[in-house]
Amino acid sequence: MNFVAILVMLQGTLYILDSITRMLEGANFKIGSNIILSTNFYFIGIIFGAIFIISSIGLLKKRKYGYFLALYLYAILIIYYLMAIAYLIINQQYFLAFYCIAVMAVFYMIINYVRKNKSEFTK
After folding, report:
1. CA gap 119, 51 in Å, rounded
2. Confidence of residue 33 (pLDDT cuts 50, 70, 90)
3. Structural domain span for residue 34
């Protein structure tokens, strides 16, 4: 279970770092209120990454909130990737759609692993 918790923590950290990097890149080229309007989307990535980190702490300590957060977050990501696959197939970018399917398979394996070890979670 520690491997999955570390994987979830790394994913959350990467979401945060990616959002901060994109915010700083956008700030270099835009002046005034455009900075505020363009960075609102990236705050969602920071919040989502923080929730991933909280979930990984719960998985490390074997708490029920970590269990439920991990299941819900990865279910949301699978739905997001299903929409991305549909979009990529419509735009005839099949290689990227195959990449999304591979990433979704990893997410599904994480969900199954967490569900099978439900009895380890307390409090």
Report:
1. 23
2. very low
3. 2-120
**Measured between alpha carbons, how far is 112 from 101 in angstroms, rounded to an integer?**
16
| Strand locations in 1-123 (E) | none
Phi, psi (deg, nearest 5) at residue 63: -100, 155
Burial (CB count <10 Å: 0-12, 13-18, 19+), residue 25: exposed
Total structural domains within the chain: 1
Give pLDDT tens digits for 81-113: 888 888 888 988 888 888 888 888 888 888 888
Radius of gyration of the chain (CA): 17
What pLDDT was estimated at residue 38? 53
Percent of the chain with pLDDT over 90: 12
73 within 8 A of 56, measured Cβ to Cβ: no
